[in-house]
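Comment on the following before class.
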Amino acid sequence: MYSPPPHSKQLMVSFPDEHVMLLTLNRPQSRNAMTPQMQRDLETVLDWFSEESGLWVAIVTGAGKLFCAGADLVEWNKDQQSGKIEEQERLTANRNGFGSISRRQLIKPLIAAVNGGAHGGGTEIVLNCDLVVAGEDAKFALPEVKRGVVAGAGGIPRLFQIAGHHIAAEMLLTGKTVSASEAHKRFGFVNKVVPSSEVVLEAIRVAQSIVANSPDAVQCTKHALLLSQKYNPEEAFLKSTFSAESNRVYKGGNIKEGLKAFIEKRSPAWKNPSKL
C-alpha cells in the first residue's frame, strides 16, 4: 500500500486507515527522549509523507507511558562539559526544529496523540501540531529554565500565539507542569481530553473526520493558517488567495466533485491532490 523510506526501530510507521499515517516514537525505556537517530528518522519519513499524494493526515504518538521526554539531557550535558557549545548555530540550522516537527511548516494536518505527557522538546512538538488529543493523565511542561537552558525549538513564540503573553509566561518562566485539563481549558493547546486508553483511537477518529473532506481544500486551508502566523490578516489573505495551493483548489477536479456531489445529494469521491 505505502512504502515509507528506511528508518530505524526508534520510529514505528503504520497506516491505521486510508490516507492516514501513524508515527510512534519507540524508545519507551528512555521515555521516548529524542536521539539524533530518531530525529533523522522523523526527518526522512515526514519529508516522504509531505510528498506522498495518497497520505493526507499524520498522527504522532509515543510508545509506552510517555509521549516524549524531550532532549536527552545526559548527552547534552556531555556536549556542554566537553566545550561543544555551538547551540545557536545548531538550533537555526535545524530548519524543522526538535524531532523534525517543532518548526516544520507542513501543509498537511498533523495530530498529536499524547499519552502520559510531554516535557521540554516533546511539548514543543505538541505546540506545532494542528490538533492535540491528550489522555486524562497527561502532563505538559517546558521546564528548560530549571536546567539553565531555553525552550529554543519554536515553543516560545508558538505558546505566546496560542495562550497570550501572561499565560505563556506562567508556564515558560516558572517551568511548571500543567495537567491535560489545564492545557485544554486554560492554556488552549489541547483540543480533546479522553481516557488514556483511547488517545490513539480518538486521534484516528479526528483524522478520519479530516480525510472525509477534500484534501486540496484542507491543505490550502492549512497553508492559510501557516501564513496567518507570519502576516497580518490582509497580507495573509492575499498570499493565500494567489498561492499554488489555492490555484490547485480552484482549477482542480475535487472542487467540481464536491459541488456536483452536493447537487446530487451524495458523498463526494475525492481524488489525491496533484503535485504542486
Observations:
- The CA atoms of residues 73 and 147 lie 9 Å apart.
